[in-house]
Every structure is written in C-alpha cells, then in structure tokens.
Amino acid sequence: MSARDVFHDFVKIALEKDGWIITHDPLPLAFGLGTLYVDLGAERIIAAERENEKIAVEIKSFIGGSTVSEFHTALGQYLNYRLPMQEQYNNHKLYLAIPLSTYDSFFQLPFVQTIIQQYQLKLVIYLPEEMEIAKWQN
Question: How far apart, in Å, are the Cα atoms of 12 and each of 15, 22, 74, 96, 100?
C-alpha cells in the first residue's frame, strides 16, 4: 500500500462535513498482480431517492516540484482504477480530489480540460485549510 497523500485526512474530514460516511480507508481493488488501493470509499443516503450514493476518491495534493508530473501520475492511477472498480464496485463513482488552487490554475489549461473531457474525469475540488469541499465536477 502506498503512502497517504499529505491532505488525506483533510479531504476525509471535508467529505464527512459534506454528509458522507467513510466506508473504506483505503478502498482495496484486487487485480491480477495484487491489490490497488483507492484512498477513500464513502457513501451517503440520498433522501429523495432513499438510495445510497457511493463514491471512491483518489486524493492528490499537487504540492510537489512538477504539477505536470503529478498530473500524469494522478491520471494514470485514475485510469488504472477504472477496470477493477467496474468489476468490484460498479455502483461507486470514481473521483479525483484536487485542491482548489490547483483546479483554478493548472486544471483550467486547455490541454488539461481536453484530457478531463476525453477521459471523463470526475473531480472533487477541496479547500485544504478549511477542510471543506468547494465543488463537485461530474
């Protein structure tokens, strides 16, 4: 299992404040060579539908030296998680969690926007200092 992201606990608290119940920390995904781990699994009851909404969240801080390199890593993980997620947790939506500052700068670049659209990335944008969710992007 890989090391937790520096903002792992911040995002976990933000999700709980947003009404989510953390069900997995981390969410294991078995595949042919071993096990992958998505940072968090969570669910909440949708009152109007009386059903559970379930998500898996991969958390990234983007505080390293190269935002491009971190984006490549995050995108690769996200795409690698898709197949085992469909097979084992097909009722969960997979999200990439990123800080608002990174969303406002790097994720608004046309190249990155094209990738988001091409690969249909779902994003949860968080405010690390406030430990709050700023925006959901499906």
Answer: 5, 8, 18, 13, 16
Q: Cα separations (Å) of 77 from 14, 37, 59? A: 22, 10, 11
Q: What is the pLDDT of residue 48?
A: 60
Mean pLDDT by 10 residues, the chain (138 residues): 84 96 95 92 76 92 93 96 94 97 97 97 97 96
Domains of the chain: 8-137 (3.40.1350.10)
Phi, psi of 128 (to 5 degrees): -65, -40
**How far, in Å, CA of 19 to CA of 38, rounded?**
20
